[in-house]
Write a structure and sequence with these properties.
- Helices cover 50% and strands 14% of the residues.
- By secondary structure, it is of the alpha/beta class.
- It has 2 domains: 321 residues, no CATH class; 97 residues, no CATH class.
- It has a 5-stranded parallel beta sheet. Strands 10-9-8-7-11 form a 5-stranded antiparallel beta sheet. Strands 1-15-14 form a 3-stranded mixed beta sheet.
- A hairpin with a 2-residue loop joins strand 7 and strand 8.
- It is globular.
- It starts with a strand and ends with a strand.
Length: 531
């Protein structure tokens, strides 16, 4: 798959929040809310901060080796796991929930971004090793979000009655969706290969997190990507002091509340803390823990603990405690010798709320990098865009704005009454001077007359444009078709479409193409045109 690449600023796309564009622009008012600049100096500073922290490398490597026993050995991954023993090895991490069949395209994009950054960091700082990591948020219980995908503009939903952490759910029922995928994609050059991969990963796995792990391993093991599943007693045990602080002192809530109050003066708040930021995770239950007087209860259940019982439960079953968004990053950065986190706009927005929480728990706060974004245009859409005399970047604008541009550029009729309006303004300007020389109070009256005279001209200009647009019905249909293809549901392609149609068509070349065009620390939206 050959593509040409052009770039657009995130601000000019119109699809990214003010807090993210301000972060990319290094706005001074966001300076207090993050630790490291997104440049090579920031990488070096993050490494020095991480060196001061007690990293739990033996536990990390031992648990990863157990986890990887269920997939075929990949030399690149095994080498990277061994490197994690070394004090000069650091991780570059992204995270996502185990949405079925990877969910949307940006799942793939963020993984390839950390892989690219790890290779780039090694080139820049050869005295260190850098391991790309995918941290799986398998304890998320939002089945509505994680149990569906879009395929050919249709939402496909996994029908299951299971509850609790999605990662722990069995894969029953997904075979029906795989049959649907088989029917639609097996005619493509790599369709049968893809369907076999899905069956191997999902039908032969006990649960969603294992199936997702196998799929990511199959797609990215050759790059040395390490997948980490944190739903693990050994990892949770490392966070017992943090869990105890949150349950009994509830300090994180107060710390984040102060940050949110400061950030909220300028930006929309992304994540709000609760008094206790932990869920109870057992069997089909993932429910909030709340303090109720001298007891602690699990909401929606009959489970209650005294303080002593809760302390005992923490010591004996740390795996039954699951952090919410406020503490999830603390767990991630405690387990891993991490220096850099790659996330989407929403993720970075809530990470900017958490710096003070990291400081409270004395855990290093990583560099934050916005994940890469892509818009891919197949050759047929590229050709339609060129025939319209437009380029790909134009299609970030609304359809009517694009049509107006075409009409005003191509019309033989002057649709702008600029000369006429100038004459009117000139006439009333001269009249204002004459009247003002007689009586200054007449100037306001002349201004009112000018406004009254120009208003119909502006209305006429709009009517002329509308009338001319009616001659461009074919062009409007083409604009609509292109925009609907590139921006499904009026959203970014990467937030709706799944990787499977692209993989069925191009196979692993699709992965290679995205990797080749992935940026490192440059922050720009990439547009890819198939050649």
């Amino acid at each position: 798959m050959n593509c040409t690449s052009t770039r657009l600023s995130y601000h000019d796309t119109g699809y990214f929040s003010k807090i993210i564009t301000d972060y990319l622009d290094k706005s001074p008012q966001l300076g207090p809310f993050y630790k490291h600049a997104t440049d090579i100096a920031g990488v070096k500073n993050a490494i020095e901060e991480r060196k001061k922290f007690r990293n739990h490398r033996d536990i990390l490597v031992a648990e990863l080796e157990k986890q990887y026993a269920v997939v075929p050995a990949a030399p690149e991954v095994q080498q990277n796991i061994r490197l994690l023993h070394d004090e000069n090895t650091f991780t570059i991490t992204t995270a996502h929930q185990p949405v079925i069949f990877t969910g949307t395209l940006y799942f793939i994009y963020k993984i390839l971004h950390v892989i690219k950054l790890a290779a780039w960091s090694k080139q820049q700082l050869p005295q260190y090793n850098f391991v790309p990591v995918f941290y799986m948020g398998s304890e998320d219980a939002d089945l509505d979000e994680l149990g569906s995908i879009w395929l050919n503009n249709e939402k496909i939903v996994w029908e299951t009655a299971q509850t609790g952490a999605v990662g722990r759910m069995n894969t029953g029922g997904l075979e029906k969706i795989i049959e649907r995928i088989d029917g639609e994609l097996s005619v493509q050059p790599h369709g049968k290969e893809l369907v076999k991969l899905l069956r191997d990963c999902y039908i032969d796995s006990a649960d969603i997190q294992t199936a997702t792990f196998k799929l990511i391993h199959a797609l990215f093991a050759r790059f040395g990507l390490v997948v980490l599943i944190p739903d693990n007693a050994a990892f949770k045990k490392l966070l017992l002091p943090v869990f105890e602080d949150d349950l009994f002192q509830q300090a994180s809530s107060a710390v984040v509340a102060t940050t949110i109050e400061q950030l909220g003066r300028h930006y929309k708040v992304q994540a709000n803390p609760r008094e206790i930021n932990l869920f109870y995770l057992k069997d089909a239950i993932r429910a909030r823990i709340e303090q109720d007087g001298e007891a602690w209860k699990v909401t929606g259940t009959h489970i209650r603990f005294t303080k002593e019982q809760l302390q005992q439960e923490l010591r004996e079953h740390p795996e039954r405690f699951s952090p919410n968004v406020i503490l999830r990053g603390i767990l991630q950065e405690t387990i891993l010798p991490d220096i850099l986190f790659v996330g989407g706009g929403g993720e970075l927005a809530y990470w900017l709320e958490l710096k003070a929480v990291f400081e409270h728990h004395a855990v290093p706060y990583p560099m934050l990098v916005l994940r890469n974004s892509f818009l891919i245009a197949e050759k047929k859409w590229k050709q339609k865009i060129e025939r319209l005399g437009l380029d790909m970047a134009d299609f970030f604008k609304p359809e009517q704005e694009l049509l107006t541009r075409l009409v005003t550029h191509n019309s033989a009729v002057a649709l702008k009454l600029e000369d006429e309006l100038d004459l009117v303004k000139q006439f009333y300007g001269e009249l204002k001077l004459k009247a003002g020389a007689i009586d200054k109070t007449l100037e306001q009256h002349i201004e009112a007359l000018r406004a009254k005279a120009t208003r119909p001209l502006y209305e006429l200009e709009k009517k002329m444009l509308r009338a001319e647009k009616r001659k461009y019905k074919d062009e409007l249909r083409q604009i609509h078709a292109v925009r609907e293809a590139l921006f499904p549901m009026n959203s970014l392609q990467e937030r709706i479409e799944n990787f499977m149609p692209w993989y069925a068509k191009w196979g692993s070349n699709f992965i290679d193409m995205i990797y080749k065009n992935s940026l490192e620390l440059e922050q720009a939206f990439c547009m890819l045109n198939e050649q």
